[in-house]
Amino acid sequence: VGAKHLVIGDDFRFGRAREGDFALFERYGRIHGYSVSAMSTLLQGEARISSTLVRENLAAGDFTAATNLLGHEYFRLVVLQQ
Asked: 28-82, pLDDT tens digit by residue?
């Protein structure tokens, strides 16, 4: 991909059984020449702001709540292929 720096959430996990974590990205970064930093969890009131919470609000049709979580109006990008 050619990334030089990667920012991930402090609780980010990936891969089989969610075994991939920040430390793994750091190790890969040293090997492949990119740096990594973690972003702290953001809260809105008592709620942790997460992509899961945004998706749940969108699925429920609550675009106002999704907009508040995102910090901007929700939009969907559609790419038309020729």
From this structure: 999 999 999 999 888 888 888 988 899 999 999 999 999 999 999 988 888 888 7
Q: Enter the DSSP assignment of 7.
A: E
Place of tokens 């974590």: 21
6 close to 35: Cβ distance less than 8 angstroms: yes
DSSP 8-state secondary structure symbol assigned to residue 80: -
Per-residue DSSP letters for 19-34? -B-HHHHHHHHHHHT-
Q: Tell me which H or E stretch contains 69.
A: helix 63-70
Whether 66 contacts 56, CB under 8 Å:
no
33 to 15, 20, 26, 54, 58: CA distances (angstroms): 21, 18, 10, 32, 37
Residues whose CB is less than 8 angstroms from the CB of residue 54 and which lie 6 or more positions away in sequence, other chains included: 66, 69, 70, 74
